[in-house]
Amino acid sequence: MQDLMEVIKGRRSVRKFQDKEIPDDILNNVFEAAKWSQSWANTQCWEIIVIKSNDIKKKLQTAITDKNPAFKAIGAAPIILGICAKLNSSGYYKGIVTTKFGDWFMFDMGLLCQNICLSAHCFGLGSVIVGLFDHDKAKEVLKVKEGYELVTLIPIGYPEKIPSAPNRKEIKDFVHYDVF
Prior knowledge:
By secondary structure, the protein is of the alpha+beta class. It has helices at 4-10, 24-35, 54-61, 71-76, 105-122, 135-141; strands spanning 46-51, 79-86, 92-93, 96-97, 126-127, 148-157. A 4-stranded antiparallel sheet has the order 1-2-6-5, sandwiched between helices. The chain has a two-stranded antiparallel sheet with strand order 3-4. Helix 2 runs antiparallel to helix 5.
């Protein structure tokens, strides 16, 4: 098993995949990592749709502009994960929203997606979190139930190419002590 910092530093957004299936045991390990994601008051407000059908992938591509670098990845990746969130759950107490920012599901989905992408990387898989698409159209294609929102799509598979690391800010440029 890789060192955690190696995994964090080594994970990239991958948009080109080999034509190679992902074994069920590896995929289940990725889902095990997802299962252990933290969430507001342990609401675990996520649902994951595993898309293997080429027909559904093609329909999903109609919800994405072909100028989006993830357009080809949606059609080429062996698996697309549709990450959905139950609404009015995370950030709520007895049916009342409790945070300044309202429904907390986006924060929980960020934690979930990070666990998915880092664990996938540990198993030699690449992934990319896709956020720029017609969510309502994709939600319709995937038949997402009322009361849930399709938050993101994650193409996942064995990378054809791993991009180099982008430049990062220096710690001193974003960490503040005591006050901003």
